[in-house]
């Protein structure tokens, strides 16, 4: 099926083990090469062997993991590997701080490239210069990309059958009636309770000054921007040409006022759990101002050429919320298998004509899967509620579509949930001989502009300042 595909994969961490290994195993092909750090060599070799893969493992020094430009030795190594193994596809699944260095090298090669979100991340996030790098590095890659070769960003909701249905339905109404999307609300809390002693991890880190925004947060910036871009269907006089954004943040220094370190200890002492030594001295001496954000709420207004508000929006992404974590010592996979549960809401209003809502609420982790997981609280819960002004636009006044009608089944056994389904479809599309344009780097212009502006506002917030920012969107939408 993929006989003409030779893949080089950069990074084999928990995400690759969970997502890409299943894909390779299912479709009976494997990456030719996996590149990781020297310190990870034995682990990576053991995991690949466990899947029965004959993949060659190549490592680079740990000291080079966060370089903005690959060393001459590493570039020479990649030159030789690409030539020897006739590499056609590259997957960048390293820690995001290293994404730019790899993309900077491979964008010059005649290969297809898939990069995990976020596209790039700063090695440190403390200054306005750090924020500017997010935008500059994106355009550096985009402006050098050869359109003959894919450069995709893994935001799997672009392939989510539920969201594809929602976006197409909204697009049809906007196009048919020239009525804009008047309200966009996107909210996501991943239930990943990060306690004070968890802040020093390398995987999904907080110690470099960034947090939720550069972890799962980019998925929802991307989703928000895709909804806003539907307004390109409007007539010229209605199309948004500029936007204003204001943002507020909850940092780690805020979070320890919500649940103080001593209150964390009290929760788990009562359960008889051993308490990490961190809470003896380090908890009180740690400077929590240096860590990344836990939650962001951004408010948007989009204006047409007459300076009139066409669309308003709210984006709320958080790690301060409902969780199933009831243990103080984290599990090995502290990001996905540590009490994390998803609460996700989307609301799209098209003036007086239609309101489309998505509700996706979990109450447990994947390990607790049962036969029926489509209900509220289930692992695969994804309900679409559609409200129509039926006397004007036809159809029924209310319609509900559940994940059960969107997922593939095998008897009573659910094959996979919508998110798992969309990840596989995204990867399959990348390796396809005739891939769609979904996920292409070019389509992330608006998302990057939003990300950049939120980054600037976070730096200002950390400095005790607050500012509403204005940016042009006519060419981005």
The CATH class of the largest domain, by name, is Alpha Beta
Structural category is: alpha/beta
Q: Bin the strand percentage.
A: 15-25%
CATH superfamily of the largest domain: Dihydrodipicolinate Reductase, domain 2
**What is the 3D shape?**
globular
Count of separate structural domains: 2
Helix count equals 14
CATH architecture descriptor of the largest domain: 2-Layer Sandwich
Round the mean pLDDT to the nearest integer and report it: 93
Distance between the termini: 36 Å
Order of adjacent strands in the largest pleated sheet: 14-13-12-11-7-10-9-8-17
Quaternary assembly: single chain
CATH topology of the largest domain: Dihydrodipicolinate Reductase, domain 2
Set out the fold topology.
Elements: E1 7-10, H1 14-26, E2 33-37, H2 41-50, E3 56-60, H3 72-84, E4 89-92, H4 99-106, E5 112-116, H5 128-142, E6 151-154, H6 161-177, E7 183-189, H7 217-228, E8 242-251, H8 252-258, H9 261-269, H10 282-285, E9 293-303, E10 309-318, E11 343-350, E12 354-361, E13 383-388, H11 390-393, E14 398-401, H12 403-406, E15 409-410, E16 413-414, H13 418-431, H14 445-462, E17 469-472
Parallel strand pairs: 1-2, 1-4, 2-3, 4-5, 5-6, 7-10
Antiparallel strand pairs: 7-11, 8-9, 8-17, 9-10, 11-12, 12-13, 13-14, 15-16
